[in-house]
């Protein structure tokens, strides 16, 4: 190798690109190594007959750390917000609660709305949060047995965290809803979600960094307790890339495989094995000539077998489909969302819901049916059971949704972990592993 890089980032997913952009903006010459032929990872986009079909994450948060990162590094940020962002189907009607919030939503669902609203309010203080063992479903049962309330909460949790209310600690959910962004503002990119990452990748390269696509990291050299180089297979050749800092966006388990268990110690390896619990999610991408839902953004449901939401892309981003077509995605979370489940049965339940809930779905064109799990999960760890971003090797770090901060999720969590890791590296403020 004739080129030298200060930092190498493995993986051009959301966490990797956010980190690389921060490094390059701060003056660290950075290389991003990506085994796929495109950026974005599990938040990227495929073209299917002119339809821009997202392979994972479909919405990008507005007004939070994601948008702030783009502004800080000088990258373009084209994300269009639907108005209203979400409608809730309650008793056959699509309800907009954007101006009334939780009070209006709960009031539409149950007579116990005020009591439940009080429970949410109490969670704003540490004393009002339940212990980590209590699930969100159990917490809800203290206030109501109303099936629609449980359905709304379960589908909301599934949409954000890719697990069921039975699998998510109530403490995580309540912390997210009362102290985090709670995804109040979000939108779609007219290029598909990959457009957001292309913009970030362009900025990295404008600042002097490099992004190698179709390039796979095959191993990491460790000597005297530090990462020294990364072995990369690219264009039929293998090269060793020296680096002072290595950041992995491929998940803690895959990082262990690249580095070698012998360099990370038994305690770290055992922790990764115990917490490596990827979630699962199903999606049906479909299109129609006629509009199938009124929601400009997302439509969520109170009572379904599995269907969590349907997102309407072309109401705000007609560029995502050929002229005259409407593009949608419907998602569900299997039961259980963590561990083995019957893929065929879960997809059948999702399709049954779509036929029941979406008038005209029988005539829609199904573009793809996708099950995301294992090596391609919606999230690499259940929220509340995340792994640390540090490792026993001082110049090796993890970013992404496997090491997200408590009670966060999705691409927003990736932006947050990237900022934390980049700040600690750039300031030299290393947190002990």
Automatic annotation (TrEMBL):
Coiled coil: none annotated. Residues 15-426 form the Amine oxidase domain. The lineage of its organism: Bacteria, Bacillati, Actinomycetota, Thermoleophilia, Solirubrobacterales. SUPFAM superfamilies: FAD/NAD(P)-binding domain. PANTHER family: PHYTOENE DESATURASE. InterPro entries: Amino_oxidase, FAD/NAD-bd_sf. Pfam families: Amino_oxidase (PF01593). This is NAD(P)/FAD-dependent oxidoreductase.
């Amino acid at each position: 190798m004739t080129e030298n890089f200060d930092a190498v980032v493995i993986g051009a997913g959301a966490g990797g690109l956010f980190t690389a952009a921060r490094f390059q903006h701060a003056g660290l010459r950075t290389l991003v190594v990506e085994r796929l032929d495109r950026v974005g990872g599990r938040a990227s986009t495929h073209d299917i007959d002119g339809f821009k079909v997202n392979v994972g994450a479909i919405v990008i948060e507005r007004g939070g750390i994601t948008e702030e990162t783009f502004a800080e590094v000088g990258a373009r940020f084209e994300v269009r917000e639907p108005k209203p962002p979400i409608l809730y189907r309650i008793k056959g009607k699509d309800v907009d609660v954007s101006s009334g919030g939780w009070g209006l939503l709960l009031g539409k669902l149950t007579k116990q709305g005020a009591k439940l609203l009080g429970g949410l309010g109490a969670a704003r203080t540490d004393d009002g949060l339940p212990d980590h063992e209590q699930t969100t479903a159990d917490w809800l049962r203290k206030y109501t047995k109303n099936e629609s309330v449980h359905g709304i909460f379960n589908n909301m949790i599934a949409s954000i965290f890719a697990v069921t209310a039975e699998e998510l600690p109530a403490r995580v959910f309540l912390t997210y809803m009362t102290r985090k962004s709670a995804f109040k503002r979000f939108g779609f990119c007219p290029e598909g979600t990959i457009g957001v990452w292309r913009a970030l990748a362009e900025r990295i390269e404008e600042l002097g960094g490099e992004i190698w696509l179709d390039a796979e990291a095959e191993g990491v050299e460790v000597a005297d307790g530090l990462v020294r180089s990364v072995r990369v297979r690219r264009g039929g050749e293998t090269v060793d890339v020296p680096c002072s800092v290595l950041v992995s966006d491929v998940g803690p388990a895959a990082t262990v495989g690249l580095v070698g268990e012998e360099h990370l110690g038994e305690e770290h390896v055992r922790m990764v094995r115990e917490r490596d619990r990827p979630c699962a999610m199903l999606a049906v991408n479909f299109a129609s000539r006629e509009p199938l839902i009124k929601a400009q953004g997302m439509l969520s449901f109170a009572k379904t077998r599995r269907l969590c939401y349907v997102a309407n892309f072309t109401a705000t981003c007609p560029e995502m489909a050929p002229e005259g077509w409407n593009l949608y995605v419907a998602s569900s979370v299997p039961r259980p969302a963590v561990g083995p489940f019957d893929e065929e049965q879960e997809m059948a339940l999702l399709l049954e819901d779509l036929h029941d809930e979406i008038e005209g779905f029988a005539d829609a064109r199904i573009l793809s049916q996708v099950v995301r799990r294992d090596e391609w999960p919606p999230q690499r760890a259940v929220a509340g059971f995340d792994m640390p971003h540090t490792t026993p090797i001082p110049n090796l770090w993890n970013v992404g949704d496997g090491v997200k901060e408590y009670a966060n999720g999705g691409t927003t969590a990736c932006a947050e972990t990237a900022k934390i890791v980049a700040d600690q590296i750039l300031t030299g403020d290393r947190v002990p592993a």
